[in-house]
Amino acid sequence: MTETAGVSLDEVRHVADLANLELTAEELPRMARDLNAILGHIAELNELDTAGIPPMAQVAEVLGLAPATSGETLRADVVRPSIDRAAVMAEAPETDGRFFKVPKVIER
Amino acid sequence: MIDGVHPELETLSISKAREAVLSGAVTAVSLAGQHYDRIAAVDPEINSYLALARDRAVVQAAKVDAAAKAGSPQGPLAGVPIGIKDVLALRGAPATAGSLILKGYHPPYDATAVAKLEAAGAVLLGKLNCDEFAMGSSNENSAYGPVHNPRALDRVPGGSSGGSAAAVAAGLCVASLGTDTGGSIRQPAAFCGVVGVLPTYGRVSRYGLIAFASSLDRIGPFTRSVADAATMLEVLAGPDPLDATASAQPVASYGVEAAKSISGMKIGVPEEYFGEGLDPEIRAAIEKALDDLRAAGCSIHKVSLPHTKYAVPTYYVIATAEASSNLSRFDGVRFGLRSEEGSTLAKMYRESRDEGFGPEVKRRILLGTYVLSAGYYDAYYRKAQQVRTLLTRDFLAAFEQVDAIVCPVTPTPAFKLGEKTDDPVQMYLEDIYSVAASLAGICGMSVPCGTTKTGLPIGVQVLAKHFDESTMFRVGTAVENGQKSSTAQSQ
After folding, report:
1. Structure pTM?
2. How far is B234 from chain A (nearest CA, A)?
3. Please, are residues B127 and B176 in contact by the beta-carbon 8 Å criterion?
């Protein structure tokens, strides 16, 4: 985390691409400004020496309560009814009742 | 206090409401109706409800009334009108998460927390406003307009569960459900002068919750008293076959536990929570609460949580990283909004997300994507996960010395609408006293402890060990009793 120069407009554009986000010409510089302000604050984490400190992804791991280690059990692996298909498909923007329909995937 | 019809609903407790329904003093149908009348009269000024679930509420209320008449056994929430934050699935009502991208979405199932409330007899009135995808500290990020604080209409109710806190404060439901990822229950509870509980991570099933940051998200109640909160958590807590992160740790009778004496208990006061930036009136109110605890037989001890200043930056790396992943599912294919603009699949994804997400959500998705992107993962995400370990160890070490920790919820009382919207870092620092407990996974609550000279509510935060909600509720009750006796003295 040595970069203090900050995130460039091109980097914001690249990240927006990765996130499938469209940014307008007005949004782009504003997002760059905000990201730099927030990352500047986040850079304070560099004050801490974290060599040898294990990363924490889940609370249960730290407490030794992860299902695999603590005896907390996962549910029985049995077939049970799921939500009615018609009810699910009714929420889709476009469907033939069996599948979700989307615009063409590859332009020819 | 808010005018309008049925002002007595502002102080109605869960036990009184249930008693009234079961004794036949009022029917559940009529109690729900009174709440809907008050919502119609008062909520245009507050904007706490995004949708009403009137049909379902009336069916449930009639069921409770029939059972009461027949004298059959009733659940602990029989006939009690309750509101649900709009990030939870309630079949028959829309679930927008405060976002345009879910406009029109009606989940075809119930969240487990919602189903448990109804099974306990609760009458679910409708869905409550919140910051978009629960991202915010002021409720100003809702696509459906901000919520106004019922205690001072020009001020924010806090966020992200602003509607849930405001509705309880304004007498628009007896209790509500909110969610807390970095302070989103405790902070609005403090701002609106109600009780708000952050249960231990894993205590309450999250099936049916629209996810923001999965290693942090929790569901908890807003109520008007600690006893009511204990009743709610007893209903909500426990394992769920539909959520592998819902813990099988034993659930206590919190109502019984909450009433137990705290004599002999050790209370920790972390010096890092009383530094520069803490409003002097809040400091004085917390010190008064500590005096009350001392009078109730506790000993007060200084503790240190040395990594506290790193909690906000750690949180904004981890929460945004998880959000960027969770929110990738909103793509215009299966539910919610699809843009008319996209001629190909890739364009449709982008246009739908552009039209559907508000600025704060885009900001957090971008930040989260950035900290996870190639070349930055170790520097930001892994680093933040390591600091999360240090923050958690701080609490585990403190709880070797004390039974509970008492500290402020927020550095300031409720701020004005529009006051902090231009500066995301300032807004994020609003979470300075709440995010560490979120990252560590411990339980905590906000209990009202007086008001400022101008009448704005102040909350005190009570934190306890993982899965030790019993101790948290006991200390909360003692704080509340101290408030009651000082109110009685001043009258």
Report:
1. 0.96
2. 20
3. no
